[in-house]
Write a structure and sequence with these properties.
Radius of gyration: 15 Å
Distance between the termini: 32 Å
Largest sheet: 4 strands, parallel
Strand content: 15-25%
Shape: elongated
Number of strands: 4
Length: 107
C-alpha cells in the first residue's frame, strides 16, 4: 500500500529549506509522496513559494508542489503559480463562503 501525505508545509523557522531531506520519511516506508503546500510565507516561519518550489525540484519523485489560492487576487495569479511549477492549489481563508459566486472566476 502506498500512502500520500496530503497536507505538509515547509517550516523554515528552525532550519533552512535546503537542509530538509525527505529520505528519512521515505526510509520509514510509510509515506511515499507528499503534497508540499506553500502559503507563500503568509504565516511566520513557513516557506516562501520559491523555497517550496526549490525543495520540490530537488526531490521531484517525493514532493508535489501546491500553491495558495489567494482569494484577494484574480485568476491571473493562478496562471502565474502554474507557470512557476505548482500543480495544485490549497484553498484557505476566503472572506466569504467558499461557494460565493464572486469566487467562481477563480474556480
Amino acid at each position: 500500500m502506498h500512502m500520500v501525505d496530503a497536507h505538509l508545509h515547509l517550516d523554515v523557522s528552525r532550519k533552512e529549506a535546503s537542509e530538509y531531506d525527505p529520505r528519512l520519511l521515505l526510509k520509514s516506508g510509510l509515506i511515499h509522496r507528499a503534497w508540499l503546500l506553500s502559503i507563500n510565507a503568509t504565516v511566520e516561519g513557513l516557506a516562501t513559494d520559491a523555497q517550496t518550489l526549490a525543495l520540490c525540484r530537488r526531490y521531484p519523485d517525493y514532493f508535489v508542489p501546491f500553491g495558495f489560492l489567494d482569494y484577494t487576487r484574480g485568476p491571473d495569479r493562478i496562471e502565474e503559480l502554474f507557470a512557476q511549477g505548482f500543480v495544485g492549489l490549497k484553498a484557505i481563508w476566503p472572506r466569504f463562503r467558499y461557494d460565493d459566486e464572486r469566487y467562481f472566476p477563480l474556480y
